[in-house]
Protein backbone atom coordinates (compact mmCIF):
# COMPACT_ATOMS: atom_id res chain seq x y z
CA UNK A 1 0.00 0.00 0.00
CA UNK A 2 1.60 3.24 -1.15
CA UNK A 3 0.88 6.58 0.34
CA UNK A 4 0.77 9.82 -1.59
CA UNK A 5 4.10 11.66 -1.67
CA UNK A 6 2.87 14.95 -3.11
CA UNK A 7 3.21 18.29 -1.40
CA UNK A 8 -0.08 19.44 0.15
CA UNK A 9 0.17 22.75 -1.70
CA UNK A 10 -2.76 25.07 -0.89
CA UNK A 11 -4.89 26.30 -3.80
CA UNK A 12 -5.20 29.98 -2.93
CA UNK A 13 -6.02 33.05 -5.00
CA UNK A 14 -2.78 34.54 -3.70
CA UNK A 15 -0.94 32.38 -6.23
CA UNK A 16 -3.05 33.82 -9.05
CA UNK A 17 -2.32 37.36 -7.86
CA UNK A 18 1.40 36.60 -7.62
CA UNK A 19 1.39 35.02 -11.05
CA UNK A 20 -0.21 38.14 -12.50
CA UNK A 21 2.47 40.23 -10.79
CA UNK A 22 5.49 38.10 -11.74
CA UNK A 23 4.60 36.63 -15.10
CA UNK A 24 2.02 38.96 -16.60
CA UNK A 25 3.14 42.29 -15.16
CA UNK A 26 3.08 44.06 -18.53
CA UNK A 27 -0.33 42.82 -19.60
CA UNK A 28 -2.63 45.77 -20.08
CA UNK A 29 -5.78 46.46 -18.06
CA UNK A 30 -8.07 49.00 -19.70
CA UNK A 31 -10.58 50.67 -17.42
CA UNK A 32 -13.30 53.01 -18.57
CA UNK A 33 -14.32 55.59 -16.01
CA UNK A 34 -17.94 56.60 -15.40
CA UNK A 35 -17.02 59.83 -17.24
CA UNK A 36 -16.16 57.78 -20.32
CA UNK A 37 -12.43 58.49 -20.06
CA UNK A 38 -10.27 55.43 -20.68
CA UNK A 39 -7.46 54.68 -18.28
CA UNK A 40 -4.66 52.22 -19.01
CA UNK A 41 -2.76 50.26 -16.40
CA UNK A 42 -1.26 46.77 -16.15
CA UNK A 43 -1.84 43.57 -14.21
CA UNK A 44 1.51 44.22 -12.53
CA UNK A 45 0.48 47.67 -11.36
CA UNK A 46 -2.90 46.43 -10.12
CA UNK A 47 -1.19 43.62 -8.19
CA UNK A 48 1.38 46.04 -6.72
CA UNK A 49 -1.31 48.52 -5.68
CA UNK A 50 -3.25 45.61 -4.15
CA UNK A 51 -0.34 45.04 -1.74
CA UNK A 52 -0.50 48.66 -0.52
CA UNK A 53 -4.25 48.56 -0.36
CA UNK A 54 -4.11 45.45 1.81
CA UNK A 55 -1.74 47.14 4.26
CA UNK A 56 -4.04 50.15 4.41
CA UNK A 57 -7.10 47.97 5.03
CA UNK A 58 -5.26 46.09 7.75
CA UNK A 59 -4.36 49.40 9.39
CA UNK A 60 -8.08 50.23 9.38
CA UNK A 61 -8.73 47.10 11.41
CA UNK A 62 -9.70 44.65 8.65
CA UNK A 63 -8.74 41.19 9.90
CA UNK A 64 -8.56 37.76 8.24
CA UNK A 65 -12.07 36.44 7.65
CA UNK A 66 -13.64 39.92 7.80
CA UNK A 67 -15.90 40.98 4.93
CA UNK A 68 -14.93 44.03 2.87
CA UNK A 69 -17.89 45.36 0.90
CA UNK A 70 -17.57 46.92 -2.54
CA UNK A 71 -20.01 49.13 -4.41
CA UNK A 72 -18.12 49.49 -7.67
CA UNK A 73 -18.48 49.00 -11.42
CA UNK A 74 -16.25 46.90 -13.61
CA UNK A 75 -13.26 49.15 -13.07
CA UNK A 76 -9.59 48.89 -12.25
CA UNK A 77 -10.11 49.45 -8.51
CA UNK A 78 -12.49 46.52 -8.37
CA UNK A 79 -9.78 44.29 -9.83
CA UNK A 80 -7.33 45.61 -7.23
CA UNK A 81 -9.81 44.66 -4.52
CA UNK A 82 -10.41 41.24 -6.12
CA UNK A 83 -6.65 40.79 -5.64
CA UNK A 84 -6.03 42.51 -2.29
CA UNK A 85 -8.90 41.36 -0.11
CA UNK A 86 -8.66 37.56 -0.58
CA UNK A 87 -4.84 37.65 -0.63
CA UNK A 88 -4.77 39.37 2.79
CA UNK A 89 -7.08 36.65 4.09
CA UNK A 90 -10.26 38.74 4.18
CA UNK A 91 -13.45 38.30 2.17
CA UNK A 92 -14.50 40.54 -0.72
CA UNK A 93 -18.24 41.08 -0.62
CA UNK A 94 -19.49 42.63 -3.86
CA UNK A 95 -22.77 44.56 -3.62
CA UNK A 96 -25.18 44.99 -6.51
CA UNK A 97 -26.07 48.70 -6.77
CA UNK A 98 -29.21 47.83 -8.73
CA UNK A 99 -30.87 46.26 -5.72
CA UNK A 100 -33.43 48.09 -3.67
CA UNK A 101 -32.16 50.09 -0.68
CA UNK A 102 -33.97 47.76 1.74
CA UNK A 103 -32.33 44.73 0.08
CA UNK A 104 -28.87 46.31 0.25
CA UNK A 105 -29.41 47.26 3.88
CA UNK A 106 -30.49 43.70 4.68
CA UNK A 107 -27.49 42.20 2.86
CA UNK A 108 -24.92 44.52 4.48
CA UNK A 109 -26.37 43.83 7.90
CA UNK A 110 -26.55 40.07 7.29
CA UNK A 111 -22.93 39.93 6.17
CA UNK A 112 -21.78 42.25 9.00
CA UNK A 113 -19.92 44.48 6.57
CA UNK A 114 -17.94 47.09 8.52
CA UNK A 115 -15.82 48.56 5.72
CA UNK A 116 -17.06 49.55 2.27
CA UNK A 117 -15.33 50.84 -0.85
CA UNK A 118 -17.55 52.90 -3.15
CA UNK A 119 -17.11 54.51 -6.52
CA UNK A 120 -17.96 58.20 -6.17
CA UNK A 121 -20.64 57.83 -8.85
CA UNK A 122 -22.44 55.36 -6.55
CA UNK A 123 -22.48 57.53 -3.44
CA UNK A 124 -26.16 58.29 -3.90
CA UNK A 125 -26.95 54.57 -3.90
CA UNK A 126 -24.92 54.24 -0.73
CA UNK A 127 -26.78 57.11 0.94
CA UNK A 128 -30.09 55.42 0.06
CA UNK A 129 -29.41 52.43 2.31
CA UNK A 130 -26.75 53.42 4.84
CA UNK A 131 -29.09 54.75 7.53
CA UNK A 132 -28.99 52.56 10.62
CA UNK A 133 -25.98 50.58 9.42
CA UNK A 134 -22.77 50.58 11.30
CA UNK A 135 -19.87 51.19 8.90
CA UNK A 136 -16.54 51.70 10.62
CA UNK A 137 -14.95 53.05 7.44
CA UNK A 138 -16.27 54.35 4.15
CA UNK A 139 -13.64 54.50 1.42
CA UNK A 140 -14.37 56.38 -1.80
CA UNK A 141 -12.77 55.98 -5.20
CA UNK A 142 -12.85 59.63 -6.27
CA UNK A 143 -13.69 60.79 -9.79
CA UNK A 144 -11.80 64.08 -9.80
CA UNK A 145 -10.09 65.52 -6.81
CA UNK A 146 -10.21 64.12 -3.29
CA UNK A 147 -12.92 61.96 -1.71
CA UNK A 148 -15.78 63.84 0.00
CA UNK A 149 -15.48 64.89 3.65
CA UNK A 150 -16.22 62.16 6.16
CA UNK A 151 -14.89 59.42 3.86
CA UNK A 152 -11.44 57.99 3.22
CA UNK A 153 -9.75 58.55 -0.13
CA UNK A 154 -8.89 55.30 -1.92
CA UNK A 155 -5.92 56.79 -3.74
CA UNK A 156 -4.53 58.43 -0.60
CA UNK A 157 -4.75 55.12 1.29
CA UNK A 158 -2.69 53.39 -1.40
CA UNK A 159 -0.20 56.25 -1.66
CA UNK A 160 0.44 56.31 2.09
CA UNK A 161 0.80 52.53 2.59
CA UNK A 162 3.67 50.10 2.17
CA UNK A 163 3.35 46.79 0.28
CA UNK A 164 2.03 43.81 2.23
CA UNK A 165 3.83 40.49 2.19
CA UNK A 166 0.97 38.09 1.56
CA UNK A 167 0.23 35.76 4.47
CA UNK A 168 0.08 31.99 3.96
CA UNK A 169 -3.56 30.97 3.83
CA UNK A 170 -5.49 27.75 3.98
CA UNK A 171 -7.23 26.87 0.72
CA UNK A 172 -10.47 26.40 2.66
CA UNK A 173 -10.40 29.97 3.97
CA UNK A 174 -13.21 32.25 2.81
CA UNK A 175 -12.21 34.53 -0.08
CA UNK A 176 -15.33 36.14 -1.51
CA UNK A 177 -19.03 36.51 -0.92
CA UNK A 178 -22.10 37.15 -3.08
CA UNK A 179 -25.79 37.24 -2.33
CA UNK A 180 -28.41 35.46 -4.33
CA UNK A 181 -32.13 36.09 -4.43
CA UNK A 182 -34.19 33.44 -2.72
CA UNK A 183 -37.62 32.14 -3.59
CA UNK A 184 -38.89 33.68 -0.40
CA UNK A 185 -37.55 37.05 -1.51
CA UNK A 186 -34.83 37.26 1.12
CA UNK A 187 -31.32 37.28 -0.32
CA UNK A 188 -28.96 34.55 0.88
CA UNK A 189 -25.19 34.81 1.17
CA UNK A 190 -22.80 32.40 -0.53
CA UNK A 191 -19.21 32.41 0.72
CA UNK A 192 -16.60 31.09 -1.72
CA UNK A 193 -13.38 29.51 -0.55
CA UNK A 194 -9.98 30.11 -2.16
CA UNK A 195 -9.95 26.51 -3.33
CA UNK A 196 -13.35 26.89 -5.00
CA UNK A 197 -12.34 30.02 -6.92
CA UNK A 198 -8.93 28.66 -7.92
CA UNK A 199 -10.42 25.47 -9.32
CA UNK A 200 -13.20 27.48 -10.95
CA UNK A 201 -10.61 29.74 -12.64
CA UNK A 202 -8.60 26.77 -13.91
CA UNK A 203 -11.63 25.05 -15.34
CA UNK A 204 -13.10 28.28 -16.80
CA UNK A 205 -9.84 28.83 -18.67
CA UNK A 206 -9.91 25.38 -20.35
CA UNK A 207 -10.22 25.42 -24.14
CA UNK A 208 -13.62 23.70 -24.24
CA UNK A 209 -15.00 25.86 -21.42
CA UNK A 210 -14.58 29.65 -21.64
CA UNK A 211 -11.09 29.24 -23.14
CA UNK A 212 -9.23 32.17 -21.60
CA UNK A 213 -5.64 32.46 -22.76
CA UNK A 214 -2.76 34.92 -22.99
CA UNK A 215 -3.78 35.83 -26.53
CA UNK A 216 -7.19 37.06 -25.39
CA UNK A 217 -8.55 40.49 -24.68
CA UNK A 218 -11.46 39.86 -22.33
CA UNK A 219 -14.29 42.33 -21.85
CA UNK A 220 -16.57 41.23 -18.99
CA UNK A 221 -19.87 43.02 -19.50
CA UNK A 222 -21.24 40.85 -16.71
CA UNK A 223 -20.73 43.01 -13.62
CA UNK A 224 -18.03 42.21 -11.10
CA UNK A 225 -20.80 42.33 -8.48
CA UNK A 226 -22.59 39.43 -10.22
CA UNK A 227 -21.17 36.06 -9.24
CA UNK A 228 -17.49 37.08 -9.54
CA UNK A 229 -18.07 38.35 -13.10
CA UNK A 230 -18.35 34.66 -14.01
CA UNK A 231 -14.78 34.14 -12.82
CA UNK A 232 -13.29 36.11 -15.72
CA UNK A 233 -11.09 38.51 -13.71
CA UNK A 234 -9.27 35.62 -11.99
CA UNK A 235 -9.16 33.49 -15.14
CA UNK A 236 -7.65 36.44 -17.04
CA UNK A 237 -5.08 37.13 -14.31
CA UNK A 238 -4.15 33.45 -14.26
CA UNK A 239 -3.77 33.20 -18.02
CA UNK A 240 -2.30 36.66 -18.55
CA UNK A 241 -5.16 37.81 -20.76
CA UNK A 242 -5.67 41.51 -21.39
CA UNK A 243 -8.71 42.88 -19.54
CA UNK A 244 -11.06 45.62 -20.67
CA UNK A 245 -13.28 46.85 -17.84
CA UNK A 246 -16.19 48.83 -19.27
CA UNK A 247 -17.37 50.85 -16.26
CA UNK A 248 -21.07 51.67 -15.89
CA UNK A 249 -21.94 52.49 -19.52
CA UNK A 250 -23.21 49.30 -21.08
CA UNK A 251 -25.41 50.65 -23.85
CA UNK A 252 -24.84 48.84 -27.17
CA UNK A 253 -22.91 51.67 -28.78
CA UNK A 254 -20.47 52.07 -25.86
CA UNK A 255 -19.83 48.33 -25.66
CA UNK A 256 -19.40 47.96 -29.42
CA UNK A 257 -17.04 50.94 -29.51
CA UNK A 258 -14.91 49.35 -26.80
CA UNK A 259 -14.93 45.96 -28.55
CA UNK A 260 -13.76 47.54 -31.78
CA UNK A 261 -11.22 50.04 -30.39
CA UNK A 262 -9.67 47.64 -27.90
CA UNK A 263 -9.76 44.67 -30.29
CA UNK A 264 -11.63 42.52 -27.82
CA UNK A 265 -11.53 38.76 -28.51
CA UNK A 266 -14.06 37.55 -25.96
CA UNK A 267 -16.86 39.11 -24.02
CA UNK A 268 -19.54 37.84 -21.66
CA UNK A 269 -22.90 38.94 -20.32
CA UNK A 270 -26.64 38.32 -20.08
CA UNK A 271 -28.82 38.04 -23.22
CA UNK A 272 -30.50 41.43 -22.81
CA UNK A 273 -27.22 43.26 -23.36
CA UNK A 274 -26.54 41.33 -26.56
CA UNK A 275 -30.05 41.86 -27.83
CA UNK A 276 -29.33 45.60 -27.96
CA UNK A 277 -25.93 45.02 -29.56
CA UNK A 278 -27.49 42.86 -32.23
CA UNK A 279 -30.03 45.55 -33.10
CA UNK A 280 -27.21 48.12 -33.34
CA UNK A 281 -25.15 45.81 -35.57
CA UNK A 282 -28.13 45.05 -37.79
CA UNK A 283 -28.75 48.78 -38.19
CA UNK A 284 -25.12 49.60 -39.04
CA UNK A 285 -23.35 46.37 -40.02
CA UNK A 286 -20.16 48.07 -41.23
CA UNK A 287 -19.72 50.60 -38.45
CA UNK A 288 -17.61 48.47 -36.13
CA UNK A 289 -14.61 46.33 -36.97
CA UNK A 290 -15.19 43.25 -34.82
CA UNK A 291 -12.86 40.97 -36.72
CA UNK A 292 -10.97 40.04 -33.53
CA UNK A 293 -14.11 39.17 -31.56
CA UNK A 294 -14.39 35.41 -31.79
CA UNK A 295 -16.84 34.53 -29.01
CA UNK A 296 -19.58 36.03 -26.92
CA UNK A 297 -20.31 34.04 -23.79
CA UNK A 298 -23.97 34.52 -23.00
CA UNK A 299 -25.68 33.18 -19.91
CA UNK A 300 -27.59 34.01 -16.77
CA UNK A 301 -30.83 33.55 -18.71
CA UNK A 302 -31.91 31.49 -21.72
CA UNK A 303 -30.42 32.52 -25.06
CA UNK A 304 -33.05 32.50 -27.81
CA UNK A 305 -32.31 30.90 -31.18
CA UNK A 306 -32.82 34.27 -32.88
CA UNK A 307 -29.78 35.56 -31.02
CA UNK A 308 -27.51 32.78 -32.27
CA UNK A 309 -28.79 33.33 -35.79
CA UNK A 310 -28.52 37.09 -35.53
CA UNK A 311 -24.87 37.10 -34.44
CA UNK A 312 -24.01 34.35 -36.93
CA UNK A 313 -25.13 36.78 -39.64
CA UNK A 314 -22.35 39.11 -38.49
CA UNK A 315 -19.81 36.29 -38.23
CA UNK A 316 -19.90 36.36 -34.42
CA UNK A 317 -20.20 33.19 -32.36
CA UNK A 318 -22.44 33.10 -29.31
CA UNK A 319 -21.67 30.40 -26.75
CA UNK A 320 -24.28 29.73 -24.10
CA UNK A 321 -23.25 29.05 -20.51
CA UNK A 322 -25.30 28.18 -17.47
CA UNK A 323 -24.50 29.07 -13.90
CA UNK A 324 -25.71 30.34 -10.57
CA UNK A 325 -24.37 32.46 -7.75
CA UNK A 326 -24.35 29.25 -5.71
CA UNK A 327 -22.04 27.62 -8.28
CA UNK A 328 -19.43 30.40 -8.42
CA UNK A 329 -21.08 30.53 -11.13
CA UNK A 330 -19.93 28.35 -14.04
CA UNK A 331 -21.69 24.97 -14.19
CA UNK A 332 -22.24 24.16 -17.84
CA UNK A 333 -21.09 25.40 -21.22
CA UNK A 334 -22.76 24.63 -24.53
CA UNK A 335 -20.04 24.04 -27.11
CA UNK A 336 -21.06 22.47 -30.37
CA UNK A 337 -19.87 18.85 -30.12
CA UNK A 338 -17.56 17.47 -32.80
CA UNK A 339 -20.30 15.11 -34.02
CA UNK A 340 -22.38 18.14 -35.04
CA UNK A 341 -19.65 20.14 -36.80
CA UNK A 342 -20.97 18.98 -40.16
CA UNK A 343 -24.58 18.78 -38.99
CA UNK A 344 -27.63 20.50 -40.43
CA UNK A 345 -28.23 24.11 -39.36
CA UNK A 346 -31.42 23.18 -37.53
CA UNK A 347 -29.67 20.43 -35.66
CA UNK A 348 -26.85 22.80 -34.69
CA UNK A 349 -29.18 25.53 -33.46
CA UNK A 350 -31.28 22.92 -31.69
CA UNK A 351 -28.16 22.05 -29.73
CA UNK A 352 -26.84 25.56 -29.14
CA UNK A 353 -30.03 26.78 -27.45
CA UNK A 354 -29.45 24.21 -24.71
CA UNK A 355 -27.74 25.20 -21.47
CA UNK A 356 -24.82 22.87 -22.07
CA UNK A 357 -22.73 20.06 -20.70
CA UNK A 358 -21.47 20.19 -17.13
CA UNK A 359 -17.93 21.46 -16.71
CA UNK A 360 -15.28 19.03 -15.39
CA UNK A 361 -15.67 18.30 -11.66
CA UNK A 362 -19.28 19.44 -11.75
CA UNK A 363 -21.68 16.59 -11.05
CA UNK A 364 -25.26 16.81 -12.25
CA UNK A 365 -28.40 14.79 -11.76
CA UNK A 366 -32.11 15.56 -11.87
CA UNK A 367 -34.97 14.16 -9.88
CA UNK A 368 -38.67 14.10 -10.69
CA UNK A 369 -41.59 14.99 -8.41
CA UNK A 370 -41.39 11.55 -6.79
CA UNK A 371 -37.74 12.03 -5.95
CA UNK A 372 -36.64 9.49 -8.57
CA UNK A 373 -33.57 10.19 -10.71
CA UNK A 374 -34.62 10.93 -14.26
CA UNK A 375 -33.20 9.08 -17.25
CA UNK A 376 -30.87 10.98 -19.55
CA UNK A 377 -33.21 10.49 -22.49
CA UNK A 378 -34.10 14.12 -23.20
CA UNK A 379 -37.72 13.33 -22.41
CA UNK A 380 -38.02 12.94 -18.63
CA UNK A 381 -38.07 16.17 -16.62
CA UNK A 382 -36.73 16.80 -13.16
CA UNK A 383 -35.15 19.42 -10.95
CA UNK A 384 -31.44 19.80 -11.60
CA UNK A 385 -29.22 19.01 -8.62
CA UNK A 386 -25.49 19.67 -8.65
CA UNK A 387 -22.36 19.24 -6.57
CA UNK A 388 -18.72 19.99 -7.00
CA UNK A 389 -15.72 21.84 -5.58
CA UNK A 390 -17.24 25.26 -6.40
CA UNK A 391 -20.84 24.49 -5.47
CA UNK A 392 -22.22 25.89 -2.21
CA UNK A 393 -22.65 23.35 0.57
CA UNK A 394 -24.68 25.79 2.65
CA UNK A 395 -25.70 29.44 2.83
CA UNK A 396 -24.24 32.04 5.14
CA UNK A 397 -25.98 31.90 8.49
CA UNK A 398 -27.40 28.44 7.82
CA UNK A 399 -30.32 29.79 5.83
CA UNK A 400 -32.10 27.93 3.01
CA UNK A 401 -31.35 24.38 4.16
CA UNK A 402 -34.26 23.18 2.00
CA UNK A 403 -32.10 23.93 -1.05
CA UNK A 404 -29.73 21.09 -0.17
CA UNK A 405 -30.54 17.39 -0.33
CA UNK A 406 -29.80 15.05 2.56
CA UNK A 407 -26.96 13.52 0.54
CA UNK A 408 -25.35 16.90 0.01
CA UNK A 409 -26.42 18.04 -3.48
CA UNK A 410 -27.54 21.59 -4.19
CA UNK A 411 -31.05 21.95 -5.61
CA UNK A 412 -30.94 24.51 -8.42
CA UNK A 413 -34.68 25.12 -8.84
CA UNK A 414 -34.20 24.68 -12.60
CA UNK A 415 -36.36 21.99 -14.16
CA UNK A 416 -34.42 20.25 -16.93
CA UNK A 417 -34.26 17.49 -19.47
CA UNK A 418 -30.88 15.84 -20.00
CA UNK A 419 -29.90 14.13 -23.25
CA UNK A 420 -27.88 10.94 -23.60
CA UNK A 421 -24.65 12.99 -23.88
CA UNK A 422 -25.37 14.82 -20.62
CA UNK A 423 -26.42 18.09 -22.25
CA UNK A 424 -28.93 20.04 -20.15
CA UNK A 425 -32.01 21.85 -21.40
CA UNK A 426 -33.95 24.04 -18.97
CA UNK A 427 -37.69 23.60 -19.43
CA UNK A 428 -39.11 25.35 -16.43
CA UNK A 429 -38.24 26.80 -13.09
CA UNK A 430 -39.52 25.63 -9.75
CA UNK A 431 -38.32 28.80 -8.05
CA UNK A 432 -40.70 31.72 -8.00
CA UNK A 433 -38.62 34.37 -9.65
CA UNK A 434 -38.67 36.42 -12.80
CA UNK A 435 -35.35 37.19 -14.47
CA UNK A 436 -35.56 40.44 -16.37
CA UNK A 437 -32.45 41.76 -18.06
CA UNK A 438 -30.32 39.54 -15.84
CA UNK A 439 -31.81 40.90 -12.63
CA UNK A 440 -34.22 39.01 -10.41
CA UNK A 441 -37.69 40.17 -9.57
CA UNK A 442 -39.34 38.31 -6.72
CA UNK A 443 -42.76 37.10 -7.78
CA UNK A 444 -43.58 36.36 -4.14
CA UNK A 445 -42.95 39.96 -3.11
CA UNK A 446 -45.10 41.26 -5.97
CA UNK A 447 -47.88 38.82 -5.08
CA UNK A 448 -47.85 39.82 -1.43
CA UNK A 449 -48.07 43.49 -2.29
CA UNK A 450 -50.87 42.87 -4.80
CA UNK A 451 -52.82 40.85 -2.27
CA UNK A 452 -52.45 43.72 0.18
CA UNK A 453 -54.73 45.74 -2.14
CA UNK A 454 -58.30 45.67 -0.77
CA UNK A 455 -59.86 44.67 -4.11
CA UNK A 456 -57.52 41.71 -4.73
CA UNK A 457 -58.48 38.23 -3.54
CA UNK A 458 -55.59 36.28 -5.09
CA UNK A 459 -52.58 37.17 -7.18
CA UNK A 460 -49.98 35.03 -8.89
CA UNK A 461 -47.02 36.49 -10.75
CA UNK A 462 -45.34 34.46 -13.47
CA UNK A 463 -42.43 35.05 -15.78
CA UNK A 464 -43.30 35.33 -19.46
CA UNK A 465 -40.68 35.30 -22.22
CA UNK A 466 -39.76 38.70 -23.58
CA UNK A 467 -37.70 39.47 -26.67
CA UNK A 468 -35.70 42.23 -25.06
CA UNK A 469 -35.52 41.41 -21.36
CA UNK A 470 -35.57 37.62 -21.45
CA UNK A 471 -38.49 37.52 -19.06
CA UNK A 472 -41.02 39.99 -17.74
CA UNK A 473 -43.50 39.63 -14.87
CA UNK A 474 -47.16 39.04 -15.66
CA UNK A 475 -49.72 39.27 -12.87
CA UNK A 476 -52.75 37.00 -12.79
CA UNK A 477 -55.32 38.49 -10.44
CA UNK A 478 -58.69 37.44 -9.11
CA UNK A 479 -60.70 40.25 -7.52
CA UNK A 480 -62.88 40.02 -4.43
CA UNK A 481 -66.60 39.60 -5.08
CA UNK A 482 -68.10 42.89 -6.13
CA UNK A 483 -64.76 44.71 -6.01
CA UNK A 484 -63.18 46.55 -8.89
CA UNK A 485 -59.63 47.58 -9.73
CA UNK A 486 -57.99 48.34 -13.05
CA UNK A 487 -54.55 47.22 -14.18
CA UNK A 488 -53.32 50.82 -13.93
CA UNK A 489 -54.58 51.13 -10.38
CA UNK A 490 -52.84 47.92 -9.35
CA UNK A 491 -49.63 49.00 -11.07
CA UNK A 492 -49.68 52.28 -9.15
CA UNK A 493 -50.30 50.36 -5.95
CA UNK A 494 -47.19 48.26 -6.63
CA UNK A 495 -45.15 51.33 -7.57
CA UNK A 496 -45.22 52.41 -3.92
CA UNK A 497 -42.95 49.49 -3.05
CA UNK A 498 -41.23 48.49 -6.28
CA UNK A 499 -39.04 50.11 -8.88
CA UNK A 500 -40.69 50.82 -12.23
CA UNK A 501 -38.69 48.11 -14.02
CA UNK A 502 -40.00 45.52 -11.58
CA UNK A 503 -43.70 46.20 -12.25
CA UNK A 504 -45.72 43.67 -14.28
CA UNK A 505 -46.28 44.79 -17.87
CA UNK A 506 -49.44 42.73 -18.14
CA UNK A 507 -52.33 42.03 -15.78
CA UNK A 508 -54.76 39.21 -16.49
CA UNK A 509 -57.98 39.09 -14.51
CA UNK A 510 -59.45 35.64 -13.78
CA UNK A 511 -62.33 34.28 -11.69
CA UNK A 512 -60.05 32.07 -9.60
CA UNK A 513 -56.41 31.08 -9.78
CA UNK A 514 -55.91 27.32 -10.27
CA UNK A 515 -54.28 25.65 -7.27
CA UNK A 516 -52.37 22.41 -6.69
CA UNK A 517 -53.40 19.81 -4.14
CA UNK A 518 -51.20 21.47 -1.56
CA UNK A 519 -52.89 24.80 -2.17
CA UNK A 520 -50.07 26.41 -4.17
CA UNK A 521 -50.82 28.38 -7.29
CA UNK A 522 -50.45 26.14 -10.32
CA UNK A 523 -47.98 28.38 -12.04
CA UNK A 524 -47.13 25.85 -14.73
CA UNK A 525 -50.76 26.01 -15.90
CA UNK A 526 -50.75 29.81 -15.80
CA UNK A 527 -47.53 29.89 -17.80
CA UNK A 528 -48.99 27.66 -20.50
CA UNK A 529 -52.19 29.68 -20.56
CA UNK A 530 -50.68 33.15 -20.72
CA UNK A 531 -47.34 32.65 -22.42
CA UNK A 532 -48.99 31.83 -25.69
CA UNK A 533 -51.87 34.29 -25.27
P1 LIG B 1 -26.29 34.95 -11.96
O1 LIG B 1 -26.03 36.04 -10.99
O2 LIG B 1 -25.09 34.32 -12.57
O3 LIG B 1 -27.35 35.30 -12.98
P2 LIG B 1 -28.20 33.68 -10.32
O4 LIG B 1 -27.91 32.78 -9.19
O5 LIG B 1 -28.75 35.02 -10.04
O6 LIG B 1 -26.89 33.76 -11.11
O7 LIG B 1 -29.18 32.97 -11.35
C1 LIG B 1 -29.07 31.62 -11.66
C2 LIG B 1 -30.28 31.17 -12.45
O8 LIG B 1 -30.33 31.87 -13.69
C3 LIG B 1 -30.28 29.72 -12.83
O9 LIG B 1 -30.74 28.89 -11.79
C4 LIG B 1 -31.24 29.73 -14.01
O10 LIG B 1 -32.59 29.75 -13.60
C5 LIG B 1 -30.91 31.04 -14.68
N1 LIG B 1 -29.93 30.83 -15.74
C6 LIG B 1 -28.59 30.99 -15.69
N2 LIG B 1 -28.01 30.71 -16.88
C7 LIG B 1 -29.01 30.34 -17.70
C8 LIG B 1 -29.08 29.91 -19.07
N3 LIG B 1 -28.01 29.83 -19.85
N4 LIG B 1 -30.30 29.60 -19.56
C9 LIG B 1 -31.42 29.69 -18.82
N5 LIG B 1 -31.42 30.09 -17.53
C10 LIG B 1 -30.24 30.40 -16.98
List the helices and strands and how they pair.
Layout: H1 13-23, E1 28-32, E2 38-42, H2 43-59, E3 67-71, H3 76-87, E4 91-94, H4 101-111, E5 115-119, H5 123-129, E6 137-141, E7 152-153, H6 154-160, E8 174-180, E9 188-193, H7 194-205, E10 217-220, H8 232-239, E11 242-245, H9 252-261, E12 266-269, H10 271-283, E13 295-299, H11 305-313, E14 318-323, E15 330-334, H12 345-352, E16 356-358, E17 363-367, E18 382-387, E19 410-418, E20 423-429, E21 433-436, E22 439-442, H13 443-451, E23 456-466, E24 470-479, H14 487-495, E25 506-509, H15 523-531
Parallel strand pairs: 1-11, 3-4, 3-5, 4-8, 5-6, 6-7, 10-11, 10-12, 12-13, 13-14, 24-25
Antiparallel strand pairs: 1-2, 8-9, 14-15, 15-16, 16-20, 17-18, 18-19, 19-20, 21-22, 23-24
Helix pairs in contact: 1-2, 1-8, 2-3, 2-6, 4-5, 7-8, 9-10
Bound molecules: adenosine-5'-diphosphate.
